[in-house]
Amino acid sequence: MLKISNLEKRYGKNEPVLKGLDLTVDGSSVVSIVGASGAGKSTLLRCINRLVEPTSGRIQLNGLDLVDLRGAELRRARRKIGMVFQGFNLIDRLTVMENVLSGRLGYVSLYRAITRKYPQSDIDRAFHLMERVGIDHYANKRADQLSGGERQRVAVVRALMQEPEILLADEPTASLDPKTSQQIMSLLQALASEMDLPVLINIHNVTQARMYTDRIVGMRHGQMIFDGGPKDFNQDALDAIYGGIESPDEQGQTIETAPAAEGASV
To answer: Domain named ABC transporter: which ranges (predicted)?
Structure first.
């Protein structure tokens, strides 16, 4: 379970980016975070895995307070936090298998990491996960030879190789076409259920948040102003989060667009 209490992030003497935020995520729930640019969505995810240092507050993952950790303790804790980025963050000159196995770097010795001599159990798990997401036939292909959707699947598998206790995804579909975006969101939804893994997704596409997540958290000016199910995410919630302005989502639709039917294109 992830439990965030009174989280604040401030840069210098400027207005806080996050203002006393409280959030709990548990079970196999898929939670989307929506809001206009500058609302604090990405900062929230980066505070959780300590890519950004919180100014104050608590971030607990299964009882372990991440804010207090330093050095080796922090590195060990980060192994349990999978992260999927908008830009994939793959090493293009390496193969798909090598990129996937890099998810085990926090678990193997320096010698094994440098020589890329991973235990057979790690290799077997990598093949199993790649087969699950449909990229096992690309195992020996260089990452820069893949499409955007294929690259994001590699990134998802790499995160799962960490055996995470939570998966964070920072705009995982922003660089993808509409059809591929739906496939990636559907995959994250399915993996959360299969692995009993909580998933926290920062996303601009409100339609996809409604279709593929169990819970929507709406942020504005660093504060959480909505927390509920997709059916409760109505026009009043949209107006509160976006200020009543018709802001386009990442697929060119307005945020006032009704939820798409299951299987329909976005």
So the answer is: 2-246
